[in-house]
Design goal:
The protein is an alpha+beta fold and 282 residues long. The protein is built from eight helices and seven strands, in the order βββαααβααβααββα. Helix 4 packs across helix 5.
Length: 282
């Protein structure tokens, strides 16, 4: 910290240890050392800015420690419960770190397209749609444009050149467009970008491929490229990432089960534990 030092607390702040440096703040028995905040202040700042940053860091630490001390005093009667929670958290954290290191070179993270397809085909009913999905496009242009009809024709056209020309015009004039045509999207998400007062999504999609609405400021247009209704199967390309995670998690759980069994067997063989269950325990 160089020449910058902020003292807060009591006389003990004059203490210094070789390992941690100088005590720069203290709350009760808790101490904040110079080394604890090393690297937290951007180097090269003017002295006044560095001091302000240091004061802010120390103030935050003091406030946190005061609150912790107050909580400890108020909840002193619950110390056993809190210690149990801390012990459980420590156990869970240690176990998690151990499992991650053990899995490191053992978990096969390669998932092939064939494996994904096999899982999808075997579990198709698990991929039923809760609501319709679409591939669609939306555009918003100013209301009352002289070329409004021409722009609408270009927007609705099946010809790639017309669509590209339409997008170029929109980009040049900063007309807003939303392209949901490259991947499946929940229809409920799509219609958030356009005034939509129709009833059932599925009824609308069964009968309409195009929708437009106009207010005082804008003309909104929506073209539905394709859709799948509620209850249909979600396409495999939409579920690929999810299936990959499922497959990897199953592999992970299988390996962790093997680890747990091997640890149990080794402990049993070495007589590291014993279980005593009697009738009176039931």
């Amino acid at each position: 910290m160089g020449a910058l030092t902020l003292a807060a607390g009591c006389n003990k702040l004059n203490l210094y240890t070789f390992e941690k440096g100088e005590v720069i703040a203290a709350v009760g028995e808790r101490e904040l050392y110079d080394s604890d905040i090393a690297g937290m202040i951007e180097p090269g700042l003017p002295a006044a800015d560095s001091l302000a940053a240091l004061q802010s860091i120390v103030d935050t630490w003091v406030r946190k420690e005061i609150k912790t001390a107050a909580a400890e005093a108020a909840l002193s009667g619950h110390s056993r419960d809190i210690e149990e929670m801390v012990a459980q958290y420590r156990s869970a954290l240690l176990t998690y770190k151990y499992e991650q290191e053990w899995l490191g070179g053992r978990l096969d993270t390669t998932v092939t397209a064939e494996q994904i397809t096999e899982y999808y085909d075997t579990n198709r009913d698990g991929f039923r749609l809760a609501g319709p999905i679409v591939k669609a496009r939306i555009a918003r242009i100013p209301a009352g444009l002289r070329q409004s009809r021409k722009l609408e024709e270009m927007f609705r056209s099946e010809r790639e050149n017309d669509r590209n020309d339409f997008l170029n015009i929109c980009q040049k004039n900063q007309y807003r467009t939303y392209d949901f045509s490259t991947e499946w999207t929940d229809f409920g998400t799509v219609v958030q970008h356009i005034p939509f007062t129709q009833g059932s999504f599925d009824d609308f999609l069964r009968t309409r491929k195009y929708y437009k609405v106009e207010d005082d400021q804008y003309k909104y247009m929506m073209a539905i490229e394709t859709y799948r209704p509620t209850g249909d199967y979600s396409p495999i390309e939409r579920e690929t990432d999810n299936i990959r995670k499922i497959i990897l998690n199953k592999r992970r759980q299988t390996l962790l089960g093997q680890l747990e069994d091997s640890l149990y067997t080794a402990a049993e063989n070495d007589r590291l534990f014993e279980v005593r269950i009697r009738q009176k325990n039931l």
